[in-house]
Amino acid sequence: MPEPTLTIRTIIGLEIHVQLNTKTKMFCGCPVRYDAPPNSCVCPVCLGHPGALPVINRQAFTHAVLTGLALNCKIARHTKWDRKSYYYPDLPKNYQISQYDLPLAARGFFDIPVRGRMKRVRITRAHLEEDAGKSLHDLPGCTLVDLNRAGTPLLEIVTEPDLSSADEAYAFCIELQRLVTYLGVSEGVMQKGQMRFEPNVNIAIRCDGREYRTPITEIKNLNSFRHVRDAIAYEARRQLTAWTEDHDYQQDKRPNENRGWNAEKGITEYQRDKESAPDYRYFPDPDLVPVEITDGMLDEIRAMLPELPIARRQRLVSEYGLSTRDADTIVNHRGTADLLEKVIAAGAPADVAGKQFVNVWLKLANDRNVHVTDLGVEPEQIVELARMTADGTINKTAANRLAQVMLQHAEPRASARADAQRSTPSPLHLAQELGLVQVHDTAATEAWVEQAFTANPKAVQDALGNPKKAQAAAGFLRGQVMKLSGGKADPNLVVRLVEKRLAKLRGKG
Asked: How far apart are CA 29 and CA 43, in angstroms?
């Protein structure tokens, strides 16, 4: 009897916790600091002492509304706070202040690029809450608790189960991180816990005309995009194996689970059965009044919305002719994209400026672990370098070297002082001083070509008589000419003169 044909469909929804970029916690004045000594950023409110009353952080609320608008959500005009019962040592009140039936934002969507097309992922809700502390298991036989993080503002974003593969989830996570950092509402560093993605995964199995759905697994302990992708892929395989071995492994026959990702072993491990809303026993928080959002408040926050990353990437491609990859790289950081557009508006050729941002300025910035905007090079100098490259004053190699020299001369922004009137040399002056100005002199270039041919007879022979090596040999000769010129020769002129010399030699043969 033939084996039944199975059709497998992966179903993925995401719960995302975004730590909001505020100086103080959600309901008290304690500072939000990542590397502070344990239990040093705490007070009676976040420690849950009797009689301590919470007060809403307005900046966190504004950040949450701004994100909700960017996710095309409906913003609630009336929203309230709820207590979510939570019996773990890292939240000493034994409840978490959150939002239950009246979330701040709901019924939105987020379009992401997937395999050359846009995929719409529906946003179920986005609500504000406070974070828990951190349990540490570094010492054998005991658990340590650091409550510095308790009370930190979180925005929890919940999607519909619209993602259908680990790769789609990976793309979603990258785009959402880019969005919140672009808005300035979060630093979004996963390794610091500033964004935590928790996929809810199950599979639909079509077999003999019937569909079976496995229990939903919520995956914890994911601290990188790669782990998100690997954990989802593993979990889908695990659930298929479990159903294949036992057809009763289905929703309503087995409980949903929380499983942790073990990165060393590359597997998910059972933690506990998954809680549902009744387990948390929500009820309205009596210490916090509901928030009424007026038209004026909403208009004021909506005015803060910038052009969003995906739309900006598409515009950089269509308006300036940048490649999709270059535009994607530049849009990663809002300040870098702003600077590029400022440079183009000031007269830099868009194609050259775009390439130099990616291949020169971003590389220099990455080497120093900063952004392009932190390098200290003035926009006017970046404009001049792009113009000099475009008009042939310098070649690309010289532009790379010149950028490094410009960076050495730049005054660091952080140490700018009133006495910093002394001007940084212009790129043209530096290029002349360093002998980087491109030579367009035909006679001089012909002399370098003659020297290169004389010094490399084997390469000349291959270029003339060895079809398999002709192209590489000609390229080698061009490189030797550039070397003899100290990189100053016009590459286009070198190409023409090398070909002219080879053609002349072929004619003699």
From this structure: 8
CA-derived radius of gyration, the chain:
30
Distance CA 212, CA 121 (A): 24
Burial 465-478 (b: 16+ CB within 10 A, else e): eeeeeeeebbebbb
Cβ-contact 339, 331 below 8 angstroms:
no
Q: Do residues 94 and 86 lie in contact, with contact meaning Cβ atoms separated by under 8 Å?
A: yes
Quickly count: other Cβ atoms within 10 Å of residue 370's Cβ.
13
Q: What is the distance between the alpha carbons of residues 486 and 451, in angstroms, rounded to a whole number?
A: 13
Better-predicted residue by pLDDT, 467 or 237: 237
Over residues 452-490, the pLDDT tens digits come to 999 999 999 999 988 889 999 999 999 999 888 887 888
Cα–Cα distance, 437 to 490 (Å, whole number): 10
440 secondary structure, DSSP code: -
CA 187/CA 33 separation, integer angstroms: 13
φ, ψ for residue 244, nearest 5 deg: -60, -40
The predicted-structure confidence for 398-453, as pLDDT tens digits, reads as follows 899 999 999 988 855 444 544 444 567 889 999 888 888 877 778 988 999 999 99
199 beta partners: 14
CA 447/CA 452 separation, integer angstroms: 9
Q: In which residue are the tokens 């809303």 written?
A: 277
Residue 202 pLDDT exceeds 90: yes
**Distance of alpha carbon 310 from alpha carbon 331, whole angstroms:** 8
Quote the mean pLDDT of the chain.
92
Distance between CA atoms of 185 and 225, rounded to whole angstroms? 20
Distance from C-alpha of 38 to C-alpha of 144, rounded to nearest angstrom: 10
Q: Where exactly are the structural domains of the chain?
A: 6-292, 309-413+424-433, 442-508
Q: Which of 508, 96, 62 is nearest to 279 (CA)?
A: 96
Whole-model pTM?
0.84
pLDDT at 411: 55
Burial tier of 366 (Cβ tally within 10 Å: 0-12, 13-18, 19+): exposed
Q: Please give the helix or strand (H or E) that residue 125 lies within, else none.
A: strand 117-130
Tell me how far apart the alpha carbons of residues 261 and 310 are, in angstroms, rounded to a whole number.
Answer: 30
Gap between the Cα atoms of 301 and 105, Å rounded: 14
Tokens encoding 250? 């289905």
Q: Give the class (CATH, top level) of 442-508.
A: mainly alpha
Question: Which residues lie across from 213 on neighbouring strands?
Answer: 204
Indicate whether 76 pLDDT > 60.
yes
